[in-house]
Amino acid sequence: MALEPEPEPEPGPEPESAAPSITAGSAVPLHLGFARMRSSVSLLIRTSPRPLLASRRVRTVSVPLRVAVSQRLRHTSIVGPTQATEGARRRRRPAFMMGRGALIVFEGLDRSGKSTQAQLLARALTEGGKDVLAPSPVQRPPSDDAAGVEYVWRFPDRSTHIGQTLNTYLSSKDAEPLHRAYSISCLPRPDVVCFLSVSPEVAARRGEFGLERYENTEMQRRVRDNFERLFAHTAVSDHNIHNFDADREMQAVHRDIVELVQRVIANVADSPSTSVLSVWSS
Ligand SMILES: Cc1cn([C@H]2C[C@H](O)[C@@H](COP(=O)(O)OP(=O)(O)O)O2)c(=O)[nH]c1=O
């Protein structure tokens, strides 16, 4: 969507220095670890009380949970469009105009319903008058051309080079294991992580299960066990992770998610912070 160019404002105060928002040149999280990277789906929901001023410049990133808890990250990878958008936003808009969105992350096993629930949530919030736009079925991070719309972003974005590399790997049943670690500085901290807990048996009954290399019940069970170990880890337990029984009927799960997210959005709207915090900041 083309946006009208905006007049260049006088420089405003910088956002809080303690809140390390991602700027041009910083990196975006991507980590392929020893097992496999779990995909995530993120929503950034604008909660600014000044929608006319602030509704069009937002960004979001997805936080693979395993990255968020790994202490052994290297700081290597760079992803462009998102940073360009952030840079453009900072140039155009003084900080006092920047409310911030709520970063909602969905995590879970393959076929646990991350995409479905993210889309249902985006629709429900939009219908409820929240400033959410979730392009569907194409879900892309913002570029300068499409800057400023809230969106649902699937991670990894398989239209990007990195996403295609992952896709090739995950779609190939007989390739040698690819152990690569991409990582980042500045991991944004989700306002809430909705973990969709599905049993491997239920997941296996859902559409298209088995097309990717790790979509088998045994592997999914191992991943689920690892998630449970992570959740028991104290460093993870304070990351606003909420567990949803995703074996249930999708509308029942949806209702619970909406109830929680409404509360999260209200809290973010009341918060004085103008940017999403870093995972590592206290
Ligand atoms: C949530 C949900 C999804 N599905 C189907 C829709 C999709 O074809 C498939 C996978 O759902 P999807 O939302 O794509 O899962 P994820 O993003 O976690 O991999 O399962 C169900 O049959 N029942 C459900 O309750």
UniProtKB/TrEMBL annotation:
<keyword id="KW-0418">Kinase</keyword>
<dbReference type="Pfam" id="PF02223">
    <property type="entry name" value="Thymidylate_kin"/>
</dbReference>
<dbReference type="GO" id="GO:0006227">
    <property type="term" value="P:dUDP biosynthetic process"/>
</dbReference>
<dbReference type="GO" id="GO:0005829">
    <property type="term" value="C:cytosol"/>
</dbReference>
<feature type="domain" description="Thymidylate kinase-like">
    <location>
        <begin position="188"/>
        <end position="257"/>
    </location>
</feature>
<dbReference type="GO" id="GO:0004550">
    <property type="term" value="F:nucleoside diphosphate kinase activity"/>
</dbReference>
<dbReference type="GO" id="GO:0006235">
    <property type="term" value="P:dTTP biosynthetic process"/>
</dbReference>
<dbReference type="InterPro" id="IPR039430">
    <property type="entry name" value="Thymidylate_kin-like_dom"/>
</dbReference>
<dbReference type="GO" id="GO:0005739">
    <property type="term" value="C:mitochondrion"/>
</dbReference>
<dbReference type="GO" id="GO:0005634">
    <property type="term" value="C:nucleus"/>
</dbReference>
<feature type="compositionally biased region" description="Acidic residues">
    <location>
        <begin position="1"/>
        <end position="13"/>
    </location>
</feature>
<comment type="similarity">
    <text>Belongs to the thymidylate kinase family.</text>
</comment>
<protein>
    <submittedName>
        <fullName>Thymidylate kinase</fullName>
    </submittedName>
</protein>
<dbReference type="GO" id="GO:0004798">
    <property type="term" value="F:dTMP kinase activity"/>
</dbReference>
<keyword id="KW-0808">Transferase</keyword>
<feature type="region of interest" description="Disordered">
    <location>
        <begin position="1"/>
        <end position="21"/>
    </location>
</feature>
<dbReference type="InterPro" id="IPR027417">
    <property type="entry name" value="P-loop_NTPase"/>
</dbReference>
<dbReference type="GO" id="GO:0006233">
    <property type="term" value="P:dTDP biosynthetic process"/>
</dbReference>
